[in-house]
Write a structure and sequence with these properties.
The protein has 241 residues and is of the alpha/beta class. Helices cover 28% and strands 33% of the residues.
Length: 241
């Protein structure tokens, strides 16, 4: 992304505040300084659902929220190098915000000057760290716990009875989910290659033939057969890689 200007039409901002008035005020002030794409959420759970569609450029998080507060939510997002700005009426949370490498800490009342400063800091950080975060996150429910995995770190999903094995960088998770249900949730970077397998097309190292059947070798060395039903679609994808 290019350096931020006073009319950032390409900027996507997510606001999380459990109070509607807080969301409305922040949305209004952002619109006044040129932000056109504003997403509003009332809880951490809403945020975790939303990021499966794509990571916003900046998160504005209220700190005091029921259930999961802004600091805890920021810790879940931190590994994806998200730009996080805290909004609070209490300066006592400032020290905790530094622990999660927050971009800025804004005390209420929110003003356009404070927001402009935060957006300028985001632009400066992007220039210093040009690498982009994962395109979106996949939210995996493990009992009472939630795991967030970036789409780029997942190699494949493999069906195992009533579960799906999630094969990612340096770890595997079991998710109580079906392959068919998962296929409806994922974006186009994942393709169904077998009735029991979905793979990340960007993790395919090569395709080969064994006994007349197509099989794929992934970057992690895993070799997966392609089901006859899915072969035509998989070959079409391979031609575009």
């Amino acid at each position: 992304m290019e350096a931020w200007t006073l009319t950032p039409d390409n900027l996507t901002v997510l606001i999380c505040d459990d109070e509607e008035a807080g969301r409305d005020v922040l949305s209004f002030e952002l619109e006044q300084i040129g932000v056109r794409r504003v997403i509003t959420c009332a809880s951490a759970d809403e945020v975790l659902d939303r990021v499966q569609e794509g990571l916003p450029d900046i998160f504005f998080l209220d700190i005091q929220m029921p259930a999961t507060n802004g600091i805890e939510l920021a810790r879940e997002l931190a590994r994806y190098k998200c730009h996080i700005v805290f909004i609070t009426a209490y300066v006592g949370f400032a020290v905790q915000s530094y622990d999660v490498d927050a971009l800025d800490f804004i005390t209420k009342p929110v003003t356009s000057r404070k927001l402009t400063r935060a957006l300028e800091r985001s632009a400066a950080r992007r220039l210093d760290q040009p690498e982009q975060p994962a395109g979106y996150l996949v939210r995996i429910q493990e009992g009472r716990h939630v795991q967030l995995l970036g789409n780029t770190e997942i190699s494949c999903f493999l069906a195992e009875d009533k579960y799906v094995r999630v094969c990612a960088d340096n770890r595997e998770l079991l998710w109580r989910q079906t392959i068919s249900g998962l296929q409806k949730m994922l974006q186009a970077d994942f393709i169904r290659v077998h009735r029991s397998a979905i793979v990340n097309r960007n993790r395919i190292r090569r395709a080969s033939s064994r006994n007349g059947r197509l099989e794929l070798t992934l970057l992690d060395g895993r070799v997966l057969p392609v089901g006859k039903t899915f072969e035509t679609e998989v070959r079409s994808v391979l031609e575009r890689l």
